[in-house]
Design brief:
It holds the Pfam family KH_NucS_shadow. This protein is mainly α. It has helices at 7-14, 20-30, 32-47, 62-73, 75-85, 108-114, 116-121, and strands at 52-55, 88-92, 96-100. α2 (20-30) packs across α3 and α3 crosses α4.
Length: 130
């Protein structure tokens, strides 16, 4: 299961009445490691002058890796996080998360990060089973 959804939030979702803030709070509470990583790249992006910031440290365990995968593999979760933090997320290798300024989505850095060549250059035998 990706998210721990409180009964009252589920009832509102069944009637179609869930705000982005409620959804993002559910994500934050359900996936604390993913929230921490994405919050960090968002803060790094906001505090710096570069067009993107990234986090490339492998998660400490499979539990945390699973949280990151669930957060970034779901269009709804990823989209909610992007709207909440005002950034575009990109993902490589089951753990490398990058946050891009919206204006940088058409940049060389973004295109390089999401390219097949960029993915291939970011491989190593240690990451084979990540």
């Amino acid at each position: 299961m990706s998210l721990d959804v409180p009964a009252d939030l589920l009832a509102r979702a069944e009637s179609g009445e869930v705000s982005d803030a409620e959804f993002v709070a559910c994500v934050r509470d359900s996936l604390p490691y993913a929230w921490q990583v994405i919050s960090e790249v968002a803060a790094d992006l906001e505090g710096g002058a570069a067009d993107f910031a990234d986090h490339a440290t492998p998660p400490p365990s499979e539990k945390e890796r699973g949280q990151l995968l669930r957060a970034l593999a779901s269009d709804a979760i990823r989209g909610g996080l992007e709207r909440h933090f005002g950034m575009k997320l990109a993902f490589q290798n089951c753990h490398r998360v990058a946050a891009f300024r919206p204006a940088a989505v058409d940049s060389d850095a973004y295109r390089e990060f999401i390219s097949p060549a960029g993915q291939l250059r970011n491989q190593s035998p240690a990451l084979r089973d990540c």
